[in-house]
Amino acid sequence: MDLAQLHLLISTLMIGSSFLALFLSYHAWKRRQNEAVLFLSFLMASVFLWSFSYGLDLLSADLVKKYILTVMSYVGITTVPVLWFIFAARYSGNDHWLTPLSMKLLFIIPIFSILSLATNNMHHLFFTSVEIVYSHGFAFLYTQAGPIWWLHTIYSYFVLILGFLMLVCMFFKVQGSNHLPISFFLAGWIFPFFSNVFYIADFRPFGFIDFTPLALVCTVVIFTIGILAIRLFDITPFAFDVMFHHIPDGIFVLDLDLEIINANRTAQQLLNAKRYQNISYGSEQECSFNSNRIFSKIADGNDIRIKEKVYNKTSTPIINSKKQQLGTLIILRDVTERKQAEDELLQAKESAEAASIAKSEFLANMSHEIRTPMNGIIGFTDLLLETELSEKQQLYGKNVRKSGETLLEIINDILDISKIEAEKFELQKQDLDLLEQIEELVKIMKLHAHEKGLRLSYSIAQDVPLMLRGDPKCLFQVLTNLTANAIKFTSYGEVNINISVSSRYDDAIMLLFSIRDTGIGIPVDKIEYIFEKFTQVDNSSTRKYGGTGLGLAICKQLVGLMGGNIGVNSEEGKGSEFWFTAKLEIQAKAE
Ligand code: ADP
């Protein structure tokens, strides 16, 4: 092959390969949603410009034409390293500092170099001299490097090496199949880099020919193989891209000044919203791109309503391997469905509670209404029994009265529990003499105890203050209920009421009341249920012992109102000890 043929071959190769770069640029452009790939598209466009202009330059022998083509190829030469650098930074994720401004700054030296090359005739600072020389059958521009050429070259090498190092670091950080695309990018970088190093170091086997554009062909070929073999742009970068942009959560990347430097599609839509509502605080706020920091003000875990959706906010610091914080990642998670379910549940709960209160109110009213005629029935039966009646009539009359009394008891219980549940029960606060209360209780209960042959006793610990303030009726009701139960469920033995101090406060005291009996006791598996409404250990016992199963439920509610607890220790067949605590104020004079 003679020199003219070689000449033609090399220039054709460069022009031909430049179109391959153009094709690749177009291919990457189609996938420009991923910013790394977008810069690869620009990079390939620059490679096209470089190779194409240089190929034409080789074919031309005219100084002016050659100079214009050189300026054109320098547009590619100066921008390729910067674009490569941006691509590497974006692809490796080291791009938190890549703002529109910093990217513009990166292009200052390339633009300055091109302008000074275009105007070199006036100042000769890019090339100190330019002339045509002929070597190996080619016409070349023989140039002497000026200070701006050196500035551009040093800058280009600096960013090229930096980009290379980013990809190398990434190569060691990633795992598995991710190594393959990075290897392609690194291999694609090596050829042009070294051919340019050889060219600048004056290692030129074909005289003045710079083989860098031809080496860039290798890059293009490697990338093309990559596209065909491992779908270079399609899978790895796009997996992250799809994930980032298509998940329904809004993702914001903030720098240390809390400025948003990246936001996925959902996040961008959210930022465009006019208003948002911070549900936890119920406050409405304006929100737009001008108020970038707005979401960073919301506390983590808070729910935010934007348009029709509800988002929950979490933020995570972005920390590098040196444990330095680079920024913050804010995720607004779409919790609309969960929130809807919660709201529905809350509504259902509220309406159930309202229904329950309405039912209790109805019961309270009804019981109250029934109680008045019931008192009439009992009262008039009493009067009837005082008149002259036959023995049979006396017996019937007594039965009417007993049934009336039982019914009244039930109605009273229902009235009490429904009053408490309808939240109509208010605790009184008045002076009470504990000893007086207990003696009154024992006086009433003794009658029943003695009827059954039981011993009823009480003891009050020495340190229990007797002059207290509280609701005497309420306390009396609980004590009566528990003592009456103790007597009811005990056939022989004794019932003992004991009062001691559970804990002391500044001006109040928590008293512990215990009512112990030697009765039938309660099976272990029933203990947890007996404080529930309408619960009895043995339903058949209703006939033997009577009752409604409401007494303990009422006690539990009343004790709760008095700030205490209620419980039982019991052994079946041996007896039970019901206890409860109640907080009572100490009368000032009693101290
Ligand atoms: P009742 O009106 O049936 O007495 P309570 O709520 O007062 O309703 O009591 C519920 C059930 O707890 C009783 O039916 C009984 O089975 C059991 N019980 C309550 N007190 C005692 C006790 N001192 N000894 C044994 N069982 C008891």
List the helices and strands and how they pair.
Elements: H1 3-29, H2 35-59, H3 63-92, H4 100-106, H5 108-118, H6 120-123, E1 127-135, E2 138-145, H7 147-173, H8 179-200, H9 212-230, H10 236-246, E3 250-255, E4 260-263, H11 265-272, E5 275-278, E6 283-286, H12 294-297, E7 303-306, E8 309-319, E9 325-334, H13 336-386, H14 391-421, E10 430-433, H15 434-451, E11 455-460, E12 467-470, H16 472-488, E13 494-504, E14 508-517, H17 524-527, H18 541-545, H19 551-561, E15 566-571, E16 575-586
Parallel strand pairs: 11-13
Antiparallel strand pairs: 1-2, 3-4, 3-9, 5-6, 5-7, 7-8, 8-9, 10-12, 12-16, 13-14, 14-16, 15-16
Helix pairs in contact: 1-2, 1-9, 2-3, 2-9, 3-5, 3-7, 5-7, 7-8, 8-9, 13-14, 14-19, 15-16, 16-19
Bound molecules: adenosine-5'-diphosphate.
Question: Segments where pLDDT lies below 50 for 5+ residues?
Answer: none
Q: How many distinct beta strands?
A: 16
**What integer is the average pLDDT?**
84
Based on Cα principal axes, name the global outline. Answer: rod-shaped
Order of strands, widest sheet = 4-3-9-8-7-5-6
How much strand content do the residues show? Answer: 15-25%
Sheet of most strands: 7 strands, antiparallel
Heterogens: adenosine-5'-diphosphate
Number of helical regions = 19
Work out the helicity level. 55-70%
The N- to C-terminal Cα distance equals: 123 Å
Q: Give me the Rg, rounded.
A: 47 Å
Global structural class: alpha+beta
Summarize this structure as a short list of keywords or feature phrases.
591 residues; 7-stranded mixed sheet; alpha+beta; 16 strands; binds adenosine-5'-diphosphate; 7-stranded antiparallel sheet
